[in-house]
């Protein structure tokens, strides 16, 4: 069994953040571990408070895991402050890194700033150059690049421009685009387009977290880049289609639909 690590924030309602990551790792039959960077008081309607973890404890969590356990892939999600970002980067650079997926989480679907505005440059400078793949959504790509992204052609340009900031590969996610759910992958040479029908469903809490963790799990299992993204896209689409109706707001996806379906057969 391969071992995946998430470095991210806790989502108390279990649909996004660390909880989504561990569910996706487990559903995809890898062993999940977590380094918690922040605790959020969150439900399906919004994020109500956050508390960041002391950067020293963030570093210590990373270092004790690397000292003891082989890590086959890492995913980074919510990292709110410059101090936490620098601590993560410093700790990771002490070890020989497996494939690293960086999801540059900035604002929750409910509109809460999960990355402090002043931390954006540190995220780009410290984490993009060590990333095997970054997975910004449209709003994050726009924010980093400073221009509007409205079409698939714009997404291609954005992927190429983001690639110049240091990651080996870029996946610009189109969940916020009008029409079908189209994601654009750029590997430094070629584009690969992943297209799925948009599912008319409100249960999209944590879709980005789930997709990036699924990519990490597939990379850990040895799939090449394009297959890892393809199978992860299949996974998130089906998880959205089987979304779980809890709470009064935007519900979570169903990470374990496969398991439940198997049971019903
Ligand atoms: N309604 C939907 N139907 C199908 N796929 C979707 C839908 N919403 C998002 N996706 C897909 O989910 C993944 C996460 O994308 P997105 O929602 O843009 O990320 P984030 O959670 O970071 O905002 C992408 O592959 C995107 O295309
Ligand atoms: C701890 C944490 N990390 C990430 C997200 C982003 O997920 P979404 O964009 O679906 O709100 C979140 N809401 N909470």
Descriptive notes:
It contains 9 helices and 9 strands. The protein has a 9-stranded mixed β-sheet, with helices on both faces. The chain has a domain at 3-128 and 203-260: UDP-N-acetylmuramoyl-L-alanine:D-glutamate ligase (3-Layer(aba) Sandwich), CATH 3.40.1190. 50% of the residues are buried. With 265 residues, it is of the alpha/beta class. Strand 4 (73-76), helix 3 (82-92) and strand 5 form a beta-alpha-beta unit. Helix 2 (55-68) packs parallel to helix 3 (82-92), helix 5 (138-145) crosses helix 6 (152-163) and helix 7 packs across helix 8 (225-241). It is 39% helix and 21% strand. Adenosine-5'-diphosphate is lined by residues 137, 173-176, 181, 183, 196, 198-199, 201, 204, 207-208, 211, 233, 236-237, 240.
Order of helices and strands: EHEEHEHEHEHHEEEHHH
Named once each, the bound ligands are: adenosine-5'-diphosphate, (4-amino-2-methylpyrimidin-5-yl)methyl dihydrogen phosphate
Strand order of the largest sheet: 3-2-1-4-5-6-7-8-9
Overall mean confidence score, pLDDT:
96
Structural class, by secondary structure, is alpha/beta
> Which range best describes the helical content: under 10%, 10-25%, 25-40%, 40-55%, 55-70% or over 70%?
25-40%
Overall, the morphology is globular
Number of strands: 9
CATH fold name of the domain at 3-128 and 203-260: UDP-N-acetylmuramoyl-L-alanine:D-glutamate ligase
Distance between the termini: 25 Å
Fourth CATH level, the homologous superfamily of the domain at 3-128 and 203-260: Ribokinase
**Estimated share of beta-strand residues:** 15-25%
